[in-house]
Automatic annotation (TrEMBL):
Residues 1-29 are annotated as: Disordered. Coiled coil: none annotated. Solcar repeats lie at residues 45-133, 143-227, 234-328. The lineage of its organism: Eukaryota, Metazoa, Chordata, Craniata, Vertebrata. Signal peptide: none annotated. Pfam families: Mito_carr (PF00153). It comes from Falcunculus frontatus. It catalyses: Fe(2+)(in) = Fe(2+)(out). It comes from the Eukaryota. SUPFAM superfamilies: Mitochondrial carrier. Its main location: mitochondrion. This is Mitoferrin-1. GO terms for molecular function: ferrous iron transmembrane transporter activity. Belongs to the mitochondrial carrier (TC 2.A.29) family. It is found in: Mitochondrion inner membrane.
Length: 338
């Protein structure tokens, strides 16, 4: 018999994972055990179900919030062009549309969609497979927090390995006066001038950022759920509010790492030239040092407003979709049984 799978179990409370909720623990054809309810969906779900659900969730989350992501990238520029200096998120978005065209905030969205689908599908597939195998080792017949943590961490390695090159291309296309006109052109130019390693300069920073982000994210969400929805029922309002607040707190706390990641991805020529840095910047330690030299401690929080505004609805959408998916499958399975 399966034990109850509380919402906190999928990630063990502090495992690393890409932005968004933990995997939906349900599958087509998997029946509910006697006495199980909404918050205790059965484990051992079909791998294909998690891959499809993960891919769709990842694509939807990134697609809906992409303009906000473009603004965040612009506002994290350490030495922006005078024409690309913005005082607020709204001003940045308005200025981008008026001076660069209606579709400018969506530039690079295609490569993000291409990366998000397989990246999230691999994450969910790896997570579910490892979680089941390791749980059998650590806690036979039960749900092991240690297994969840290890599975989530390994799954994040795969997710970011797929997503990181897409992030590099996306952020270069998002920058003001980007010399790249298309995704394919950007990929070819970066490969030719900087080599394949350019697509993974920020990989370790990305992983370092995901671990604390998800730890803060899940802990905050669970704490809020205890107060807003103690019975853990399907309550869209509590899922949206808790998801939004959790995303905001995690986003603000990890902004310094995001700024370093953006610098490694974009290799801002103006900023690097001002410090007489030749060649290309690499490594998290070098990124931290460069950001500090360019503007001190305040530089580590450039774009924090845009990042929080982007992440709040993003995590709210992700959690509400996840909870609805879980509720729908539970209800559907119970109706089939009766």
């Amino acid at each position: 018999r399966y034990r109850r799978m509380e919402l906190s179990c999928p990630m063990g409370g502090s495992a690393a994972a890409p932005p968004g909720p933990g995997p939906p623990a349900a599958a087509a054809g998997a029946g509910l055990m006697e006495g199980e309810e909404y918050e205790s969906l059965p484990s051992g779900a079909a791998l294909g179900t998690h891959m499809v659900a993960g891919a769709v969730a990842g694509i939807m989350e990134h697609k809906v919030m992409y303009p906000g992501d473009s603004v965040k990238t612009r506002m994290q520029s350490l030495q922006p062009d005078p024409k690309a200096q913005y005082r607020s998120v709204y001003e940045a978005l308005k200025k981008m549309v008026l001076t660069e065209g209606l579709w400018r905030p969506l530039r690079g969205i295609n490569v993000t969609m291409l990366g998000a689908g397989p990246a999230h599908a691999m994450y969910f597939a790896c997570y579910e497979k490892m979680k089941k195998s390791l749980s059998d080792i650590f806690q036979q017949g039960g749900n092991s927090h240690l297994a969840n943590g290890i599975a989530g961490s390994v799954a994040t390695l795969l997710h970011d390995a797929v997503m990181n090159p897409a992030e590099v291309v996306k952020q270069r296309l998002q920058m003001f006066n980007s010399p790249y006109t298309s995704v394919l052109g950007c990929v070819r130019a970066v490969q030719r001038t900087e080599g394949f390693g350019a697509f993974y300069r920020s990989y370790t920073t990305q992983l370092t950022m995901n671990v604390p982000f998800q730890a803060i994210h899940f802990i905050t969400y669970e704490l809020l759920q205890e107060h807003l929805n103690p019975r853990r029922e399907y309550n869209p309002r509590s899922h949206i509010v808790a998801g939004a607040v959790a995303g905001a707190v995690a986003a603000a706390a990890t902004t310094p790492l995001d700024v370093c990641k953006t610098l490694l991805n974009t290799q801002e020529n103006t900023a690097l030239s001002s410090l007489n840095i030749r060649g290309h910047l690499s490594g998290m330690a070098n990124a931290f040092s460069t950001v500090y030299q360019l503007g001190g401690l305040p530089s580590f929080f450039k774009g924090v407003q845009a990042r929080v505004i982007y992440q709040m609805p993003s995590t709210a959408i992700a959690w509400s979709v996840y909870e609805f998916f879980k509720y729908f499958l539970t209800k559907h399975t119970l109706e089939k049984r009766t």
